[in-house]
Fold this protein.
Amino acid sequence: MRNRVLLIFWFIIPWVVIGCNGDTDKLKTEKVSYKVAVVMPLSSGNDWSRTIDWALENFRQAQAGLPKITDIEVELKNEDDADLPEYLSRVASDDSYKAIIGPYSSKNARLAAAACAAKQKTLILPLATSTEFQRIFAGKGYVWNLAQSDITQCEILLMQVAVSEMYDVSLLTADDDYGKSFSDWFAYQAIELGLQVKDVVIYRNSEELKNGVAHFADRRFIGGALLFAPSKQSDFQLFDEVYDQIDGPFPMIYCSDVAHSKALAGKIKNSYEGVSPSADPASGFINAYRSRFGESPVAGEAHLFDAISLLSYALASFGDADLNGSIKSIVDGRDSWNRGWMAIDMQAALLSLQSGGFPNLSGVTGDWTFDQKHHASVLNSSYCHWVLKDGKYHTLEYLSTDRSGRTISMLQTWQTQTDYLQEFNRQQEDFNYGEHKGNWAVVIGTSDTWANYRHQADAMAMYQILKRHGYDDDHIVMIIADNIAYDSRNLYPGVVKVRPDGENLYQDMVVDYNINDVTIDDLKEILLGNSSDRLPHVISSGKNDNVIVFWCGHGNYNMLAWGSHATVYGSQVRDILQAMKNEQRYRKILFAMDACYSGSIGEACIGIPGVLFMTAANAYETSKADMKDSEMGIWLSNGFTRAFQEAIDETPNITMRDLYYKLARQTVGSHATVYNAEHYGNMYSNTMKEFLK
């Protein structure tokens, strides 16, 4: 496909100054020109070129009379073109292009960021909202994102459910970067808001999407809400087609920003409600846009306007010698600033910047305030709450995350709900467990790739904590892949850490089994104490011994990854624990599990006496990594495991109730959850001291 290229130029006519003596002299003006690539999807129905023209016109007017004039030449590339990867690679390597603005989608933004990496080419993203994308490229120094991630959008969508007094909520989303942001955070945020999660359906293709829509026609979902987060406009159209054929009630539907597009207007048969990133309503941009073009802006236009403006400020004030550093100086502005984005305001800002000031600037989308450590994205955003009816979009209200008071603050409303904690019966009687004689442990890290470094590292950290608290190697069975300490990508051969400045966990490590050399059936034999030539290392626990099982790896609902290819189901874990009970192989078991959807495994094991599950997430949530080594570009640990290990290492006599409270408050992005407490004993009197010295 031939590239669709739009070239936009302007030229500045030098000012003529007439002196008091009547002579006419030309003021000498410094001029410089820069070329910029803008990559946006033409399939969206948005007229991106008019937004670009407007932003450049604004910048031109702002420079009138200034001693330094900056020209910007824009090349508009269609994001939908098949040759986009080649185009991005070429532009990133071409020094004549000073920056890239866009692409729009997170998938294509990932391509652009990778292409820009080698030369640290400046990349300004108007609206790439995937959490995964922003996490990967946080702190790189050349990626500037003018929209918050979809964590925020998911939160705001759920807020609309909450304020509508619908307490059952489900999610339908795609299995890609965009959808993962929603599936990762949906259940966590729903619970924080006091909502009941009914179901999460993730589709990989059109047929699965159709089945997903039909699935929610079931009566058990009626009366609640469905969040639909399509990653493509065609998915929304297909949803509408299937939904149109459903005869009968259906959950209330709330859509994400992909459903807010001029290309969809007039093509959708049914009515929907949703939210999308927007201009700050207090900036005046929305009214100015309506006055100029006769219609309201939709997702992306205000953010593209700001991307042009931010780049213009940097080039006009500092030049291109260190463009990324220039942008950082602008977004980190420390001087107070209470002016807007119009030409006269922009001129004042340019004068301040060119004279050495650092005004705290804002654009049409709001303040350009970034996390000063990572600069992954802006910290505050505005959202449009819209309804699609009779083929037209109508704005209901504007929402904001900036606590400004001029718009509704989602964060303030959410904060009132953050005290979600499990309650336990303080009067729960303890069971007669008999004499306590010894302790045993099985530590399992089920991942075997470098990208999942954190799972093995967390397992090694657990091993070292056990060693510090009275366990010897004869009482620990260690099962990991054991292939990260000397991986070629490890900058510190023989060293494994869970924090950048932490101890070497690999030192004196004894690994009993490679995860890929044993099966879940082998684990059963290990826990039952059935040694053999192939399984020489087992735990020899009896009815008076306590057992810790620590499990870290990947999971899905009611299933866990095991090594490279195997899968373990909740029923298999239950069978193992039940067999241990039947053969009197334990007094008490503490099963700590850090995996996505780990709560579903805890649910599968409810009712087994003497077993307490502590999981990183409930049955519908993903667990989260939280400690990253920016030098090696990998995550070192998981949030729940870090909190669990720090708590028991520092306070080995902590009560199970207090341990849970620490985990619940320190685990971010998922809900640490306890299962089977009613079959374990009083959480206020049972302590970790029974498992640690």
